Amino acid sequence: VAGLSDPAVPPSEVNCSGCGAELQCRDSSAPGFLPAVKYRSLSEGPAGLQDADAVCQRCWLLSHYGQALSLQLPPEEHRRVVSAALRRPPRHGRGPLLLYILDLLELPDPVLPQLPGLLSPDVPAAGVLVLGNKVDLLPADAPGHLGRLRRRLEAACAQAGLRGTPLVDVRLVSAKTGFGLEGLINRLQHSWKCTGDVYLLGATNSGKSTLFNSLLFSDYCKSRAPDIVGRATVSPWPGTTLSLLKFPIINPTSDRIFRRQERLREEAEKTEDELSSEERKYLNQLKKQGYLVGEVGRTFQQQKARRVIDFDPDMLSYSIDEEPRDSPKKHKEREEFTYNEVKDARWCFDTPGIAKENCVLNLLTDKEVKMVLPTRAIVPRTFILKPGMALFLAALGRVDYLEGEKPAWFSVVASNQLPVYVSTLSDADAVYEKHSRQEFLKVPMGGEERMKEFPPLVPQDITLKGIGATEAIADIKLSSAGWVAVTAHAEEKLLLRAYTPEGTTLVVREPLLPYISTIRGARIPGTAAYRTKKPPSLVENLKSKERR
């Protein structure tokens, strides 16, 4: 797949527009690789490797086929790149603002406490703004759920102990559907303005590159930049960004702020019925992907020059015996920033994701990762189990109900593609042994041969005490595969045993969505399962019909 390399060719000193790695054809296992034939073809072209479409083979395969080439790049290298960038001498007389993107599904975030160690004591950050991303994937379990999630985010920041770095704000966003992003841009332009550089930081798969792309096509970016700066490669495969990508931040002058607020006010007065058919179609696509939607618009756009049509009469003069000849296509030269555009520019940087240790995703193939990471609104699945029953989440996790007086409710919050299987405790080991090797449980894939190399599930005993039939006691987080919210009758004592693959982390935490078990339909006769129910989506910056 990788193609032939040529160790004799020196590196290009040109970065891939998708991941930021230096383009090269010397080593197929190193970042920035292009097959030697393609490398020479691009190098000898009119624009050379500076062509705006020049991406490495890894980014090309990720974008077109969702396939990731393995790299000989240790996780420490990503950390080194990020730390080196943050330790640069301060520009414009002050340190950078850090936008830390935190995956809400991964609370408690394992990387946030490491943030102070990436900074230099000589170059303190001006502040950190923590963004709870992927809020669109979580259903509203009760009124005020966004306020509860925000408070959980604040508590996570307090627990992480961001020594010496002031916490500017915490916000809930969806980099994918745009929810909360216009508010984020307002916050940045009113408080941070254009006083220094901004760095997007976070763990792998937190959504940094998706946010980078959304901001690139927003009012936070200089209007001409999207025509010059390549979009970051977005993929569920961990560690897609390998070096620094950047775009110039627009200066929020009073006039620009006024024009932007005028646009936002006009859009807030619209209803869905007043959108164009194309806009409604796009909005409906976003609603299928998430519970919370908020499209990001642009006030300042570069005016496109009118197309000049070349007329060559000689190309139209051919005899009856000749075939018409096509005009040779002129190469479209890559646009560049002028000196004046960037001489005093402040930049927004996308950085490599910091790898999570003891994470189940590190054990999976690229196809398995795509199955495990949720990309659409999560539909909770609730089961009522009696003592002596077991619940499987694919072949990646298991929860046994060992002891208790009454049935309890177990609500699974995970990718809709991962199967959930319930069995008796006496049959559980045989079920796992049989079905994990026959792909019935889907992940891991590959049957018996794959399971030979996959680590065994290891147990951890958990004791809980119920607080009511509608409120969960705790979430049992099965590494990054998802979690099971446990709800039991008041004062009911439960003894559970949870399993995750050896070498991965199992966390028992305060429930993120305590009323998740109430999002369910009627019980399916003869089974432990309830019918699923999907709450409606909410569009952030459109007027509802009731308010007309």
UniProtKB/TrEMBL annotation:
<dbReference type="GO" id="GO:0005525">
    <property type="term" value="F:GTP binding"/>
</dbReference>
<dbReference type="Pfam" id="PF01926">
    <property type="entry name" value="MMR_HSR1"/>
</dbReference>
<dbReference type="InterPro" id="IPR048422">
    <property type="entry name" value="NOA1/YqeH-like_C"/>
</dbReference>
<dbReference type="InterPro" id="IPR027417">
    <property type="entry name" value="P-loop_NTPase"/>
</dbReference>
<keyword id="KW-0175">Coiled coil</keyword>
<dbReference type="InterPro" id="IPR052807">
    <property type="entry name" value="Mito_transl_resp_regulator"/>
</dbReference>
<dbReference type="InterPro" id="IPR006073">
    <property type="entry name" value="GTP-bd"/>
</dbReference>
<dbReference type="Pfam" id="PF21516">
    <property type="entry name" value="YqeH-like_C"/>
</dbReference>
<feature type="domain" description="G">
    <location>
        <begin position="198"/>
        <end position="249"/>
    </location>
</feature>
<protein>
    <submittedName>
        <fullName>NOA1 protein</fullName>
    </submittedName>
</protein>
<feature type="domain" description="NOA1/YqeH-like C-terminal">
    <location>
        <begin position="410"/>
        <end position="511"/>
    </location>
</feature>
<feature type="coiled-coil region">
    <location>
        <begin position="254"/>
        <end position="288"/>
    </location>
</feature>
